[in-house]
Amino acid sequence: MAEDNKIFEDVIAEALSTEHLKVVNALKKPKRDLDLATELGLEDTAVRVILNDLHERKLVRYKRTKNHETGWVTHHWVKREDQLANFSRWYLKSQINKINKYLNYEVNSIRFRCGCNVVSYDDAMSTGFICPACEKNYEEYNNTADVEEKVCELTRLSSLLNQT
Ligand SMILES: [Zn+2]
C-alpha cells in the first residue's frame, strides 16, 4: 500500500500543486485552518483556498463545532483517505482521454506554422497561408516530435493508472 500512496501523492502534486499535497499530508489528524497555516508556514488565506479546492474534489472533509458561549463556529479539517484512489484514477483517465483526442486528430493531419502559432490546413488556407496575427507565411510543420512526446506521456500515465 505504501507504493500506492506514493502514486496518489504524485498525482495530487501534479493535478493540483505541491502545496495541496502538503496540506493533505498534514491532515492525517483533524486540524483547524489557522493551525494548519502555522504548521506549514503558509498564509491563512492561501490555506483556506487550498482547503476549499480539496473539499470540492472530496479529498478532505470537515467537522463543525460551535462554541455555545461565543457563538463561534470552528471547522476541523481532515483528509479523506478513501477518496485518494478515486481522485487519482479520475485525473489519470481524464489526462489520457485528452491525449488520445489530441493524437486522433494530430496523427493524420498536416499542420502549418507561422511565427506565433500552429494551425490546421483549413485555417492556414482560409487566410491565404499568411497569419493574420504575426503576418508571416504559414509553412508546413512536422509534428512528429510533438506526437512522440505525447505518446511518451500517454505511456507514463497509463502505467500509473495500472498501478492504482
Ligand atoms: Zn502567426
Rg, nearest Å: 23 Å
Please provide the ordered H/E string of secondary-structure elements: HHHHEEHEEHEH
Question: Helix proportion of residues, in percent?
Answer: 55-70%
The top level CATH class name of the largest domain: Mainly Alpha
Unreliable sequence segments: none
Q: Provide the domain count.
A: 2
The proportion of strand residues reads 5-15%
For this structure, the CATH topology of the largest domain is: Arc Repressor Mutant, subunit A
Largest sheet: 3 strands, antiparallel
Instruction: Give the number of DSSP strands.
Output: 5
What is the CATH architecture assignment of the largest domain?
A: Orthogonal Bundle
**What best-fitting shape do the alpha-carbon axes yield?**
elongated
Care to describe what's here?
The chain has 164 residues and is an alpha+beta fold. It contains seven helices and five strands. The strands form two sheets. It has a three-stranded antiparallel beta sheet with strand order 4-3-5. Strands 1-2 form a two-stranded antiparallel ribbon. The termini are close together. The chain binds zinc ion.
